[in-house]
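In this section we walk through a basic example: taking a raw amino acid sequence and producing a predicted 3D structure, encoded as discrete structure tokens. The instruction is simple. Fold the sequence below.
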Amino acid sequence: MPDCLIDMPAEIFMQAERYNIELTQTKYLLITHSDKDHLYPYLLRWRYLRPGTPSPPPLDVVGPRFSDIEKLTICGNKTVCGLISAELSDIPDLRSNDYLVELLPVEPFEEMRLGDMFIRTLRANHGQREDALNFIIQREGRTILYGLDTGWFLPETYEVIKEFRYDLVILEATFGDGRASDGHFNFDLLRRARTAFGEDGLLREKGIFCATHFCPHFSPTHDLITPRLAREGILAAYDGMELEL
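The resulting token sequence is shown next.
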């Protein structure tokens, strides 16, 4: 089972159950930014276990959880960490460590190691309200770029992106056939990025260039999107997709 999760929206438990993902094994959570479709901190409350609860618990004990879980290291910007800290401090006498949560505030262009992963944080182009993050992740000889939410790459961000060669690139396509914004791609920007990555030699021989984060108000249905993007070397993601690198 995977031990690293990127972002935690409100429907994460439902989707994990649907696709048989065991979230109790998650050790690391990378948060891109604080928009609610990427972070819903209330869900972290389920991690609390009343001290002294035996395992397995007796049938007359009530609590958010009874299963054993790993400590969860959460990496995010100061806005993200502040929201999570406030959520987990809302109940008197409880703090983040009571939920087996460790907060690791990070800024753009930092390098860090989590377990056997090397991670480089990037500055996303997603407004000035907070330092939204994208991630370069290296693990077991594979390199992944995770780029959402973001508008077209900031110059300093693309300079760092060009330092690596990728087995998997995941970029957003929020506005589809609509107009791009300062904080999101559309299909035109997605094609521009695919061309740039090809010209700059950023994809490895069998590297995958993948699009996700489609807004249904601006994009055709998935069955129509998939062949359109495939002709341009772009894989359209879908819920439950699994990729082997």
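Looking at the output, two observations stand out. The CA atoms of residues 81 and 105 lie 6 Å apart. The two ends are 16 Å apart (CA to CA). In the next section we compare this with other chains.
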